[in-house]
Amino acid sequence: MITIKKADDKPWLGEKVDNRRLSELRNKWHDFHGRQLTKPEQRMAKLTMDKSCHGRPCCQQDHR
Predict the structure, then answer these.
(1) Helical packing angle, 22-32 and 40-47, nearest 10°
(2) How far apart are CA 59 and CA 57, in angstroms?
(3) Using alpha carbons only, how large is the chain's radius of gyration in Å?
(4) Within 13 Å, how many C-alpha atoms sit on residue 39's CB side?
(5) Predicted pLDDT at 16
(6) In the Cβ-directed half-sphere of 49, how many Cα atoms lie within 13 Å?
(7) CA-CA distances (angstroms) from residue 53 to 17, 42, 57, 58, 59?
(8) 8 vs 38: CA distance, rounded Å
(9) 3 state DSSP class of 53
(10) Residue 48, CA distances (Å) to 16, 33, 44, 51 in order
(11) SS3 of 7, please?
């Protein structure tokens, strides 16, 4: 049972804000899990954003 004090403290939010960039999280995911998948280079390429697409996944990529 959650008490009002516990709900006010919001322990599920953690102690600090996570200010990592999405690219850092992507790289950590790749290091710990993505390398074990089939065709890891191809998987990583799908997650990498092309600068010519202004930070959006490139429209010309096959996203299957």
Answers:
(1) 170
(2) 6
(3) 18
(4) 4
(5) 78
(6) 11
(7) 29, 18, 7, 5, 8
(8) 45
(9) helix
(10) 27, 16, 6, 9
(11) helix
Convert the pLDDT of each residue in 39-51 to its tens digit.
999 888 888 865 5
Which residue type does 59 have? C
pLDDT less than 70: residues of the chain: 1-3, 6, 49-64
> 2 is written with which tokens?
């959650």
Inter-CA distances, 30 with 24, 27, 33, 42, 46, Å: 10, 5, 5, 11, 12
Please, are residues 46 and 61 in contact by the beta-carbon 8 Å criterion? yes
